[in-house]
Amino acid sequence: MAELEPFLGKKYKLKTSDNFEDYLKFIEVGLISRKTAMAVSPVAVLTKNPDGSYTLTMTTPIRTLKMDFRLDEEFVETRADGLKAKSVMTADGTKLIQTSTEDNGRRSVHVREFTQELLVVTTTAEGWNGKCVRTYELVK
């Protein structure tokens, strides 16, 4: 995780979003939750906690979602639509890779790639032929 250390505590705000609504439809997010998600521009922040765990915080004017995790250890994620999924975070250079499995077995992979100016999140899912790319810009 040393390669991700320079990005800890930095704020990245959503700038562009491609195929996000199609992904939300595929994972069966309801219409109201889907439209709400499409209307906001979250700010993402990755922090390291004193106990060595990490927190990924997504803040919008509507709500704040936090994922607390340890690398390579399964944890229960509560999505914005309230669904719980089992997730594992791994680090690969400047990428934070989240594999999320729902109770129905559907699996999504979210690759968060950090740079000095951008956070690019690429999402794919088993059974979906699409790819969602959301680009966040560093808040200065």
UniProtKB/TrEMBL annotation:
It comes from the Eukaryota. This is Cytosolic fatty-acid binding proteins domain-containing protein. Keywords: Lipid-binding, Transport. Signal peptide: none annotated. InterPro entries: Calycin, Fatty_acid-bd, ILBP, Lipocln_cytosolic_FA-bd_dom. PANTHER family: FATTY ACID BINDING PROTEIN. Pfam families: Lipocalin (PF00061). Gene3D superfamilies: 2.40.128.20. Belongs to the calycin superfamily. Fatty-acid binding protein (FABP) family. Coiled coil: none annotated. Residues 10-27 form the Cytosolic fatty-acid binding proteins domain.
